[in-house]
Amino acid sequence: MFDSLSDRLNDTFSRLRGKGRLSESDVNDALREVRIALLEADVNVSVVKSMLGRVKERAVGSEVTKSLTPGQQVIKIVHEELITTLGAEEAPLVRPAAPPLVILMVGLQGSGKTTTAAKLAKHLKGKGRRPMLVAADLQRPAAIDQLESLGKRIDVPVFVDRKAKAPKLVKAAMKQARSDGANVVIIDTAGRLQVDQALMKELAAMRKVANPDEVLLVLDAMTGQEAVNVANGFLEYTDLTGLVLTKLDGDARGGAAISAREVTGRPIKFVGVGEGIDELDVFYPDRMASRILGMGDVLSLIEKAETIYDEKEAEKAAAKMLDATFNLEDFLEQFQQIKKMGPLQQLVGMLPGAGSALRDVEIDDRQLGRVEAIIRSMTPAERRDPKLINGSRKRRIAKGSGTRPQDVNVLLKQFSETQKMMKAFAGGKSPIPGLNMPGMGRKKKR
Amino acid sequence: MDTNLLILLVVAIVTVAVVVVVAVMRSRRTKPPAAAAPAVTAPEEGLRSRLARTRTALGDRLGGLLRRGSLDDAFWDELEEVLIAADVGVATSSKVVEAVRKQKPESGDEARRMLEEALIAQMSGRDRSIHLEGKPAIVLVVGVNGTGKTTSVAKIAGLLGESGSTTVLAAADTFRAAADEQLRTWADRVGVEVVSGAPGSDPASVAFDAYRRADEVGADVVMVDTAGRLHSKSNLMDELGKVARVLRREAGAIGEVLLVLDGTTGQNGIGQARSFTDAVGVTGIVLTKLDGTARGGVAIAVEQELDVPVKYIGVGEGLHDLVPFEPRAFVEALLEP
Predict the structure, then answer these.
(1) pLDDT reported for residue B293
(2) Shortest distance, CA B214 to any CA of chain A (angstroms)
(3) Chain A hits for B73, Cβ within 8 Å
(4) Which helix (H) or strand (E) holds A396?
(5) Pick from B4, B89, B233: which is nearest to A436 by CB?
(6) Residue pair B265/B290 in contact by the 8 Å Cβ criterion
(7) Rounded Cα distance, A254 and A269, in Å
(8) What ipTM does the predicted assembly reach?
(9) How far apart are alpha carbons A93 and A266 in whole angstroms?
(10) Cα distance from A209 to chain B (closest Cα, Å)?
(11) The pTM is what?
């Protein structure tokens, strides 16, 4: 199994702690690990090569920031380079000189074109536009039915003609859009292989008729080395204007994003993050970069944590946690600190490694408030020693917090479970691959 | 300040907070309502030529590489990259190349032959037949979204029909809009019956109904097409587990659990195979979309890590473009210049 990049790099650099500048040989050692990490994330081989060249140029001789280890320093540079490659600024849809805005959706079979077309229509409708969907996938059985059904769900008209050929259909759809006053036309096309000349020519013909403002390549985030060929193929025939990365709600590291971006030079405009029609998001290069490196958004987490903690305080809390004397009182206190770093949901998204298990969890702020209320309704003595809490105290706490005694039970039980978990960490199981826990007796041999 | 310490602290507290909140949330939520197979044969001819279309970048590169002749470090690095470019993965690629290197080939050609044999050896010795014990025998088809499950179900049903078996299909993808219609269109083409449920209905009950229907009409096989689901979504994997449980309870055993893997998928394919195997006990892989330039090399790592054989590969959109997997043809196509 893949160890996180930071783990590998920390090992590589364990000899180098305290060094001021990165030498060429340090960097070469590190880049070997970075190469493997990028390849494991499915970044294309040739793209990896050119990226590493750029990273090396920047890394050799760079100063190691005081709060970072040399390993983290290299990661930071790789991270920044990934962000640059992914496109540092937001890439909104173009605004056409005259409406309608015409969007052509293209891609391989099963990449998620139809779903994305509907999501995009919903997204634009929410912004006050009047979209129309065009069912131009005449290949896949029931693709038209799928789009019609999605259109009904989001109350967006769908242009359907089950008999026409694709280019002709598009022509009729454009006419219809103008007479209906639709100001966005989203054309869903059949999935096709970029090497299928007949179908690619058909796509080129559709493009000619529709004269789209945007041609979006819909790319599955799980795509491997092939992403480069796919992106190149579609670029050649349809002159793409942007990319949409789908199925990012899975656990694919998504190196395909880098590959496709690098070979086409086209920005990633949207990402699909779920099966719901709302689950389309604009693209955040920094998150994607962290994901490709398999490290969560650790760097932002560090930056945020540094602003709220001083060293002594942090050490004290960590020590308590590790010997399992961390009680509800400490929890309440620490949690007030952590909250300053941002909403819990957002923090969860930044967690590296072990945190990924929590990533799908939806955190409702009301529930969070409820948990806090329960703890606050306890006396300090009860927080320090939950064993004190008998039936009548439980009822009092429930009443005080506007909850039920069962809720108090669940909270106490769960807290003691997590305490045990912490103890397990202390026993040498790091919650995050890649972190050498201070004073935890964990030494990894390689 | 020690950044590791900080991260530990933040992670721990956030983790505790989330776990506690979720536990309280969950407890408040109300409970939700609750035969030895005929060997399937397909025309073998045409496979090679169709796979031949895929011989592009990789083959060209390998050809150039081998012509160079000198077997220095750069040669071995590049050989490894040829495999990585075919999605074989870093770990497997370096292992295989290292093994070949140890055999000390004397020429590029010899290295290539050894590499080919090494890869074939990795994939040999696995039972790739389709097991259809029981009547009706059950074939459960699973996978992430967009890999080609529905199409594969229809094609396999077509192949079974040609070898004389009757099949009933279960449209247990009740989530995606019009998935049912898609399966029906295919079913009409291959002339088999479909049992479906209302949109949003319980997939396990659709599977159950289809099993009963197959039993009633005396069909040999019931094939269950399930909704695509990302393997990292535990609730959806639980739902799939329930489908399998219901079928196992009803029939005693499931003949085949086929995982449909998209041939363009990279290293994520390993995680997919692992999660689906954990959830429903995958017995075979269907590797689709190999008619493009994708190599499907991740299948090698999947077989190694999970000991699950690839049983079919998809090499086109036609009914007969789903063919039994053959390691030698696969590896030759992977490497042939």
Answers:
(1) 87
(2) 24
(3) none
(4) helix A391-401
(5) B4
(6) no
(7) 15
(8) 0.83
(9) 12
(10) 27
(11) 0.78
